[in-house]
Write a structure and sequence with these properties.
The complex is a heterodimer. Chain A is α/β, with parallel strands linked by helices. Chain A contains nine helices and 13 strands. Chain A has two domains: about 220 residues, P-loop containing nucleotide triphosphate hydrolases (Rossmann fold), CATH 3.40.50; about 60 residues, 2-Layer Sandwich (Alpha-Beta Plaits), CATH 3.30.70. Chain A is globular and about 75 Å long. Chain B has eleven helices and no strands. The chains are: A alpha/beta, B mainly alpha. At the A-B interface, helix 2 of A face helix 1, helix 4 and helix 5 of B.
Chain lengths: ~325, ~270
């Protein structure tokens, strides 16, 4: 469906003409029907990768294809594609209603007033429909972006930080809408810093670091169960004594949260029974996407440091 | 294609209507014209009224040319600079259609303003008891034709450079400047300084003069029309020639602008 092979994007800074590698051999594949998330630090190259997929940025080298075609500005391919940009790059002189009408009509079909009004109602924009986009808040602009994205029921959606600046109610509704669209068979590619959101929605994840994909896998494979550690939650009942083998102890009121090594499970159960503590939860610790992300990025940073010091050493010896 | 053209023209017309810069520019010129039309109200002489009308026609048409150039410049530079084209080119709307609609919308606005100016000058003629001359129609039509070429040229400049630089190039480095340079170098050569460098410089100025667009390519032939506001039947052909020149210039600028737009690394 979406395919990028060894994509390099290099920029030159304006004054000193310093070379910046925005993408450095990015290779990834999004399959038909995937809910694919691109994860990475600021400046890792997520948005640049998305611009390449959309044909908005010409790669310095490498190959990008969507549905078997090289994306070009405004080509026929886009009739099945919707894009929600990260920055509100909208026509700021248009009002909310005019902007949705304009973006919808760029698909070459007339959109009825009813459809536009429904979309305004659904996103809570009806009362602001005559407000110019220049005067709208970031969240409202984002809602306009979402409305123009969903009005034509696209087959492929590119979402760059879609929930940035949105209120929790709209985030929840938007999430449901995305699930619905995905279940209907649409392919979704999303950039987001909100890892919990990705955990809820995506089925495949690519972690990008310094312009290349370091991990590309099913989300389930990244959310592994830790076989050596249990997460326990119990009612401390005001009793300050917590067994010494529990780690990362957190207290919230009566509740105590901590990690328990597998080897001490029977000791802990014994202690609970003896003291009559109320045990709320005892389950194998699940590695969150956040933890996986940090581990991978930390690992990559260490590798890069080792690589750099090796290079410096070899340079020193050759000199 | 028609739907896309319509949608883009609709959005661009809104852009012109809501541009504060264009509005301020228009208000200043209208104020100046209004001030200029006050003195004839207190005059009884038909000659003085005619002279005032002629001045007003010349000023308003000059203002329309600048406004048309401004529209061409702004419609491209504002969309490029605030990156709103991302929203257009990620829809099935090719750059060819977007660029054409930007040009057509500016041309339509220019036509509308020319009609308004023509109507106003006809009304002034009637108010001041002057005969309504065909020269008014000719001058308006010629201004509109010239504005087509100017819009396309400024669109091209805005596509390849910063709008401030584009304005400087259009105002200072135009065909008139290089015509003057060409005349000076020719005069220097005739007066005995026929060095190789000077002859080369003269050729460069000549080439630049020929290559750069000319606002009124037949201004010598139509000079009398502007001063007398009368048109001979044999003079209408210059309007047709000007239209041909403007069309060729527009087609050239459109193709180069499109090429530059497609060659942009980052939209």
């Amino acid at each position: 469906m979406i395919f990028a092979q060894d994509v390099h994007v290099h920029f030159r800074t304006r004054f000193f003409r310093r070379k910046v590698r925005a993408l450095n051999g990015l290779t990834l594949e999004v399959r038909d029907g995937d809910f694919f998330a691109l994860v990475g630090q600021n400046g890792a190259g997520k948005s640049t990768a998305m611009y390449c997929f959309l044909g908005l940025l010409r790669p310095t080298s490498g190959k990008v294809e969507i549905m078997g075609q090289v994306p070009e500005l405004g080509c026929r391919l886009y009739k099945d594609i919707a894009y929600l940009p990260e920055e509100p790059h909208y026509h700021l002189y248009l009002t909310v209603e005019e902007a949705i009408r304009y973006y919808s009509s760029l698909y070459g079909k007339r959109v009825s007033n009813k459809t536009i009004n429904e979309s305004l109602e659904r996103l809570g924009l009806a009362q602001f429909k005559t407000l110019p986009l220049a005067k709208c808040s970031k969240g409202m602009k984002q809602k306009v972006g979402i409305a123009q994205c969903l009005i034509h029921e696209p087959k492929v959606l590119f979402l760059d930080e879609p929930t940035r600046g949105l209120d929790p109610l709209i985030v929840r509704e938007f999430r449901e809408t995305l699930r619905e669209i995905h279940q209907r068979g649409a392919t979704i590619v999303m950039n987001s810093h909100v890892l919990s959101e990705i955990e809820m929605l995506a089925n495949r994840v690519a972690i990008i670091d310094r312009g290349k994909v370091v991990v590309q896998d099913e989300l389930q494979n990244l959310l592994t169960l830790n076989q050596e550690l249990y997460r326990v939650i119990f009612d401390g009942n005001g009793n300050g004594v917590v067994p010494e083998y529990l780690t990362a102890v957190e207290r919230t009121g009566h509740l105590v949260r901590a990690f328990l090594p597998k080897s001490r499970l029977s000791d802990f159960m014994e202690a609970v029974r003896a003291s009559g503590l109320l045990l709320h939860e005892c389950s194998l610790k699940r590695t969150s996407l956040e933890e996986s992300f940090f581990n991978i990025i930390k690992g990559e940073a260490t590798l890069a440091e080792t690589d750099n010091s090796n290079r410096a050493a070899s340079l020193g010896s050759s000199l | 294609m028609t739907e896309l053209l319509k949608a883009n023209i609709w959005a661009d017309v809104r852009f012109y209507r809501r541009s504060k810069l264009l509005l301020a520019f228009m208000l200043v010129f209208l104020l100046l014209t209004a001030l200029q039309s006050l003195p004839p109200l207190f005059m009884n002489s038909g000659v003085q009224s005619f002279n005032s009308l002629q001045e007003i026609v010349a000023d308003l048409n000059f203002f329309l040319l600048i406004l048309a150039a401004g529209m061409g410049l702004l419609v491209i530079s504002s969309h490029l600079r605030n990156r709103s084209l991302k929203m257009v080119f990620t829809k099935p709307c090719p750059p060819e259609v977007w660029l054409l609609s930007a040009f057509l919308s500016a041309a339509a606005m220019s036509l509308f303003l020319n009609v308004v100016v023509l109507g106003s000058t006809v009304v002034l003629s009637l108010l001041w008891h002057l005969p309504v001359r065909m020269g008014l129609v000719f001058v308006s039509a010629e201004t509109f034709v010239a504005s087509l070429g100017l819009i396309a040229y400024l669109m091209l400049l805005a596509m390849v450079m910063h709008p401030a630089l584009a304005a400087i190039v259009a105002i200072i480095f135009n065909a008139d400047l290089f015509y003057q340079f060409d005349v000076w170098t020719k005069a220097a050569i005739r007066s005995g300084n026929s060095s190789f460098a000077l002859r080369m410089v003269e050729k460069v100025f000549r080439c630049l003069y020929i290559l750069l667009p000319i606002v009124y390519p037949f201004d010598k032939q139509t000079e009398n029309i502007h001063s007398s506001l009368r048109v001979l039947s044999s003079e209408w052909k210059y309007l047709l020639f000007s239209f041909g020149y403007a069309l060729a210039l527009t087609a050239f600028c459109y193709c180069v602008s499109l090429w530059a737009l497609k060659r942009k690394n980052h939209i």
